[in-house]
Amino acid sequence: MIQNILILTLNDLAVSFKNKSIFLILFIPFFVYVSLLLVDEAGVDIQKTRIGLIQSAPYAPVMLAAVQSADTLFTVLRVPDEAEGKKRLKEKKIDGLLLPPEKEKMGLVLVVVQKESILSLSIVQGFLALQKAVQGHDINWISDIHQLQEGGIQQQTLPTWILMLALLVSFIILPAQIAEEKEKKILLALLQTPMREIEWLTAKLFLGMILIFIAVLFLHLMGGFDFGNALTYFAFIGVGSFCFSSYGIFLGFLCRNQASARTLGVIFYLPHLLPSALSDFSQKLSAVAPFVPSYPFFESVKSILLVHTGTTTGMFWAWIYLFFVGSTTFFLAYRLMKKRWLM
Amino acid sequence: MTNPVKVIQIFIRKRNVLFMQIALEQLTKTYKEKRGLLPMDLAVEEGELIALIGHNGAGKSTLLKLLAGWLIPDKGQVLVDGINLKNRLAVVRKIGFVPETPNLFDFFTVGYNLRLFARLFHIPLQRIEEILQAFNLLAFRNNKVQDLSKGLKQRVSIGRTLLADPPVLLFDEPTSGIDFEMTKEIYRLLTEFHRSGKTIIFTSHRPEEIKTLATRIIVLHQGDMVFNGSPQMYFQSEIHEKLYL
Asked: Mean per-residue pLDDT for B66-79?
């Protein structure tokens, strides 16, 4: 009996090696380890933050002099007025905007994109340190913090859920379905009809895009969340779903069977989800995140839903980038299909 | 001045292409570790019923898959009615392939599977009724494919291939894994298709079974064609003894 259990266990391990499931066991701890390396440690050097100051506003001369002299902590940028400052903040050209006190004997108002972020924390910490060095203990220079993002915690987490849904459909559902059609030779049967390769690929692309759209709409309807700038929002959901669905189709073509497709899907899913979703909590992660295609999608959706930004130059380039990644992976999938790759 | 020998050669070549329904020219396929199919030339005339025989790994399935367009050859070409197989859309209605394992959408019904392929072929749905009737599948039209026996699945698979009524039919091990009665039924169908004028190529492990069925036998051994002739010639030759006795 024990011998049989041993034989079967070894066989199961061999199967998991063969269908590459074992890679998940190796990959997930490795990925978590790398992510932890990228999460900011306590006492880590705070990177320079860009502070916007209104050109003609009456800031306290002591504070101005201190901020300008602390050039290792802050880069000071002058903006003509509050509206322009907020615009630059939305476009991520500055990290925080300091507004002059509304009443006498009050401190400055710091405007940031999101209160609970590593950037806001580093600005406040930097100002406190500066103040302590220059004035000792006195009334805080910053007396209030405003954020541009609207809504409660539910609304704040919405972009993360949307990214998660888009990646789930693209990297888990689509590759598995494609690999199944390859594994059961159904795709080859379809290729014996007058159907063109491009038609099959487009149908799969539409499937991914439709599933993502339905999931996003369902999430909005259930939670009662508004769409922000609806046109820009749907343009991004459209291009994002195109990009990730094409990516998923390409991954599906790299696999011979469903088990491999699921493994590969998870291997791609986590590095696309976590750096983007966690970028607000770590400066290191936010430096790494732009290298994955999920980041421009996530950042744009976040801007539209939480800051209610319309189209900006940054978002235009994000759109182009997503379209480029989608088109490239779609073309690669087409080439693999033409070669009957792993069929 | 034009070389008359060359003109005659071109004429003969064109004539062959015109009269041969299928022409293989130096068709080659190799896999990573083993030989699939060594360079092969072959001509198949319209209305032939050819049995491809040989042991496992001889290259029978590879040859059929190359003819069906499932595999892309490393070298050489296949011409069907003079059209290169690379031009898939031009020949897709000319060749029907029935693989060893039926590749159907298991979780859908027999009727759904046939409807889907009929739509992709742009043929009237009336044809489905004809196929269901011809293959005694009327009673199973609403059954899921996954609930059918292997023999029935094979019948659905053949029925699907015949939807577009292709003049060339390829069968990979059509009787593999099915019982004696169903084997007889499959051979009856092959004979019927042959009588209706179709060109048929099928693979088999069992030469005795196709003694009276095939009009030509091709023997493959380790990717090479070692015999190509009539069944009478085959059974009189040493090949049969060497390979099977």
From this structure: 95
